[in-house]
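Usage

Read records sequentially. Each one opens with the input sequence:
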Amino acid sequence: MPAIEVSDEDIQSAFETNVFSVIQIVRELSPLIIRAKGKIVNIGSITAVTPYVFGAVYNATKGALQAYSNTLRLELAPFGVRVILVVTGGVQSRIARTDRTLSEDSLYLPISADYLRRVKHSQGEIRSVVSAS
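and closes with the structure output:
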């Protein structure tokens, strides 16, 4: 959704999923991870540094996860724990499974076709390449 039109519920849900849950899981499992000198792998996104339009909240969650992972890496290194942040680009997933429509009083109604195309841009048809041997 546009940054100035996103609902509190959508903001809360995105941060719960992409940030708060990761922090809570790491906190709860940290004694085991430290004992095992294990690895923590978080899935970030290029949107943390190159945001996409109409994705302000998602972009913010991935920025927060990146900052958290970078700090966690420094804090857990003395205990032999590695923290890895996988930074993805456009990935076909179910992120756009919920249809997002502009409200009747949206400032973006004049560009609604562009808006709809943009919010589903990375979720197009999967194409596979098969090589003949």
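Summary fields computed downstream for this record:
- The two ends are 46 Å apart (CA to CA).
- The chain has a mean pLDDT of 85.
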